[in-house]
Amino acid sequence: MIESFEFAVYDNEPMFVDEYLYQNENKNGIKLSANQTEWYLIDWNGNGIYSEIGIDYYGVKSPFKRRPILSLLKKTNKINHNEVTYSIDNKTDFRELNKTVFEPKNDISYISDFIPIELSDGNTVNSDIFKDYNKTVIYYWATWCAPCVKKLEQVELNSNKLALQKVNFIPIYYGCSYGDVIKLNEKKGLTFNPIEVSNRSAISYQLTGLPETYVFDSNGKLIAEHFDVE
């Protein structure tokens, strides 16, 4: 199945951070699937070939995202799905997945169910966060991210409404310092507990840019990657 996606591009490479700064280009991709994991081969130079090593890209896409996260195609490539690692290689024209040893530092990760979140202090956010809630929002943010701070302010103002609807909102910061978070809390009157994601979990949750939002139902199934406070 061929699909078309729009990517921010700079120097002929896809950009996933500060995308608004770059020109957009449409690229075609072939959607492939196995073992409940979906991946794409992207024809980057538009010549109708989807598997040129060092030219084309491969990637995965959550059903709630508008386009896949990409990595340059090599002879052997790795994908993490719910912290299980698969390899795809040129022996099968990149069309088959082979389960392999888990490697948390892969470029491509895909979450469809809640994965316990390792924090920088060694603690873990685990599945007990779903207890007594209809929905749980994991919100990755940073102090330098203006849209992130605006969302936190909206949540603070509507905390009672969210509690009545049994929504558990958990902000987790990334790419900024604890001191900056404390200063922001004091300046904006925020009452969130400052917790920081570890690098390992940042990779598992594919934090290529901020904010990143994951909404789970009471069973830990991913149901959305957008959260509107209203």
UniProtKB/TrEMBL annotation:
<protein>
    <submittedName>
        <fullName>AhpC/TSA family protein</fullName>
    </submittedName>
</protein>
<dbReference type="InterPro" id="IPR013766">
    <property type="entry name" value="Thioredoxin_domain"/>
</dbReference>
<dbReference type="InterPro" id="IPR000866">
    <property type="entry name" value="AhpC/TSA"/>
</dbReference>
<dbReference type="InterPro" id="IPR017937">
    <property type="entry name" value="Thioredoxin_CS"/>
</dbReference>
<dbReference type="InterPro" id="IPR036249">
    <property type="entry name" value="Thioredoxin-like_sf"/>
</dbReference>
<feature type="domain" description="Thioredoxin">
    <location>
        <begin position="105"/>
        <end position="230"/>
    </location>
</feature>
<dbReference type="Pfam" id="PF00578">
    <property type="entry name" value="AhpC-TSA"/>
</dbReference>
<keyword id="KW-0676">Redox-active center</keyword>
